Amino acid sequence: MTAGGAPGIRIEELQKRFGRQEVLRGVDLEVRPAELMVVIGRSGGGKSVLLRHLLGLVRPDGGRVMIDGQDVTALRGRALDRVRERFGVVFQGGALFDSQTVLENVLFPIREHRRVPRAELLPRARQALAQVGLAEMGHKYPAEISGGMRKRVAIARALVTEPAVVFLDEPTTGLDPILVNTIHHLVVELHRKSNFTAVMVSHEIPEIFAIAHRVAVLHEGRIRLVGTPDEVQRSDDPVVRQFIRGEVEERAV
Amino acid sequence: MPRSPVEFLEGLGAAGLNAVAAIGRFGLFLARALGWAVVPPFKAQQTLQRIWFVGFRSLAVILLTGAFTGMVLGLQGMLMLRRVGSEAFVGPLVAIALVRELGPVLAALMVTGRAGSALAAEFGVMRITEQIDAMTVMALQPMRYLVVPTLVAGVIALPLLAWVFDVVGVLGGYLVTVSLFGLSPGTYFGQIRAFMDPTDLWVGFWKALAFGLLVTWVAAYKGFHVGHGAEGVGRATTEAVVLASILILVLDYLLGSVLP
User: Fold this and answer.
1) Do both A201 and A134 map to the same domain?
2) Which of A70, B128, B226, B257 has the most Cβ atoms closer than 10 angstroms to its Cβ?
3) Local confidence band at B24 (pLDDT 50, 70, 90 cut-offs)
4) Which residues of chain B lie closer than 8 angstroms to A55, CB-CB?
């Protein structure tokens, strides 16, 4: 993809072990430009580790991650930062800076990168908060708002820089089903507006089938299956079937 | 369980390697921070906040401990010097001991307990809640925003705190020796003026500066390399305080034998 638009991501033979535990055993996955890809898999199955590789936070033992034609696993320092400047990341717990107000949190990335004119900083941050329905909450501290609101602030903070790639690490963990749907719809709506490439790690089955363009199933350190939500749901692979059904049954109890 | 000698040696070697690697990481952490310290833009606001936190917020503790240290020095000095009939020299004894040794060392230990532990806990929580990662993936360096302002604050605040400690301590000594033992005020201050050397002040200054860097360095390092969960933060905090306290005393001895 060209530098302006949303880039694609290609993960090739990614391997990682921690001590004796092999977490990733050769992950291959291609995320198309402007696609909303959701990676599902068992808890502790390496989904977050995979995501941290894409962010350049962890270096793999083997394989590479190509984003916009560059191998982020080989980049360091300034070169890695230049790629990261096009990222927006929503961490599992929100990872809001708890010494700053909600508004300051959203302001932080655009103010520090100095690419937005001074006069536009506040309006942009306010607009980002309004987009997630929290225009009135700017003066509060993260500790003073609910978990669902914190996730939405995190989404606002990730999108305020107008990123080309957005990574979401289980953005709905610990929320009730109504909030899960609210966050999902928010992601879809913002994606439709801004057309970024999105990689989301989730275990919200079956909810994510309604929003994902494609779904990848991570199983025992490898991608077991990639396909549209329909294809994954109709798969006759016993592992995939059991995983999806198991989660649904668990839910029903 | 009995283990073979080979396994024992392997364990010993692994422990040795780990220790060396940890020392290396500890040193590299400072080297990287110092690298960022000379690359603009400098974060004035964050630095001022840290100076306020490390320095100003420690003032009450420093005033209290400084006063009592000076009083104890005055008391013991008086009791001792009276035996040899040299009470007149109690002023220089109190002042030089404070300026060269006790001011920097005790101020550093107090700052370790008050601010060092809090810094380690703050950075530890930021690490486990992924706030430090969030900053990293925003292409904004945690070293620049968190560590450098903290180190600079330590280097600026501790010499100032040590001087406050010295001044309050000398006044504490004055209170005991003059008001309690009836020493003449002129003797107390006059002898200090006669015996104190600018070198003493410089020694105290360099020590305080070094301790300021040491305390914030250890606290930031321990916070950044925290283990898992609340327990990890607790351990990092304890380790920061213990390690910083030990290193302050070791460094005090080393500097004491190198400086004039």
Assistant:
1) no
2) B226
3) very high
4) 133, 137
